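Our collaborator T.R. sent over the components below with a one-line note: 'Predict the complex.' Nothing else. No constraints on interfaces, no templates requested, no preferences about which chain binds where. So this is a plain run: every listed entity goes in together, and whatever single assembly comes back becomes the starting point for the next discussion.
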Amino acid sequence: MISLVVDDSRAMRRIVRSILGSAGMEVLEAGDGQQALDVLETHLAGGGDVPVLATIDWNMPVMDGLELVGALRRRRDLRGMSLMMVTTEAEQGQIVRALAAGAHEYLIKPFSADDMLAKLDLLGLAPVGAEA
Amino acid sequence: MNAPLPPRPTTPPISSVLGRTAPTTPPTTSATTRPATSPGTRPATGSVARPLTSAAPARPATAVPARPATNPLGSLPRPATGARTTPVAPVAAGLRAPAGAAVPPVSRPGRDALPPADLAWVRELVFAQTAIVLGADKEYLVASRLLPFARTRGHGDVASYVAWMRRSGTASDHREVIEAMTTNETSWFRDGEPYTHLRKHLVPDFVRARSTSRTLRIWSAACSTGQEPYSIAMVLRDEPALTGWKIDLHATDVDVTVLDQARAGRFSQLEVNRGLPAPMLVGNFTRAGAHWQVNQNIRSLVTFSQANLARPFPPMGTLDIIFCRNVLIYFDTATKRQILARMKAVLAPDGYLVLGSAETTLGVSTEWEKDPRSRASIYRPIPGGTR
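Returned assembly:
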């Protein structure tokens, strides 16, 4: 399974990649929303599968996470992709905005590996044989 | 309590627990080109937490701080203070349950259970490997979580177990301690199957069977800080077929401290991060300062009270479903048998008993049969016996 990790912090990308890797996923990375679209384009053009998941930071340069969620949700070819915001934005109104824009899940930083794996569970992306 | 379920408000779709808000088809196959940035084989968790052994754990049990953590014990934005920020669920709740005097020979994880040096060793081990900070006041939690492992390894109490760990434990033995202290057993919907089964099968069963009384009585028997009964309440409230029904949701725990938090329905940011679907969070909670408060329409469905499972149950009428997850493990077989018999006596003949995913009535009682529709540990009473 392929996933896409979008965060302008390299350290955070590495952490998320490690957690998703433990769930058996391969990971594409991007540092902002525009780069995410570019990386995705290249990946798909090369015959890669549609990622099953994108974890998306909110506050990033060039194109922020909310805009990226909107852009991804407008794409018919990416319908199989779960979108999870992973951000320090913790206000209720922000969560509502993200869900309204098309995010499926929302994880607030800081979080533990278990928290993220629990979200994968909710999205039906838990690795086979993983504990419930 | 006893509030008839009001009509559903216009909240975001809550089908997710259990009906997933996620896209329907994760269409990947394994025949993919490995991307250049791929971690290759499973990445080591070293970037997050140093593994104890070269065989890195399958799941990095680690806290991910919002900012780089450079700090020593006590200043991480993690469960530094208060059991509230640690995953307290049936495991811990169960531990509290047998704390009453009536439960020999389970040793009580009391306040004096662990010498300070042993507690410090556990805290340092957990911090070094996961960056999770256990407060110095977490002795009770430590003792609670470790008790089942102490028993499994034949130690009379947790102090003896920790002393042995320090003296002779290998790195993989240590992993057991770390996992015991960091695993979330039942934060919200984490162990989703019982809730899925509730929604898909049990509710429809009772909608038919109780169509006259239109009343559902449920007991969460070791509710800890309230995640289980509130999760149940959210599922039931989201069921169109139960609109207008009377819901009696009883929730008990032996520990009055956790009951206070449960009753208040206030949860930290860390707590709501654990297994609670985002649409349910924004649909059923209101942010209040640094906390999230369960909305009144959900709280009003649940009545909390103190109860020790080893003693007579409080009067709750005839129950339709009992949730008793990850609790029985803390009792000896004779007490378990006795608890199951009394649960059967208060459960309707067509009612259900929901145990923890690794629990079974096998070897304890012959008066229960597993619900064949579920992989989870969901049981029905067999007619006759002690009824």
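Summary for T.R.: The two ends of chain A are 19 Å apart (CA to CA).
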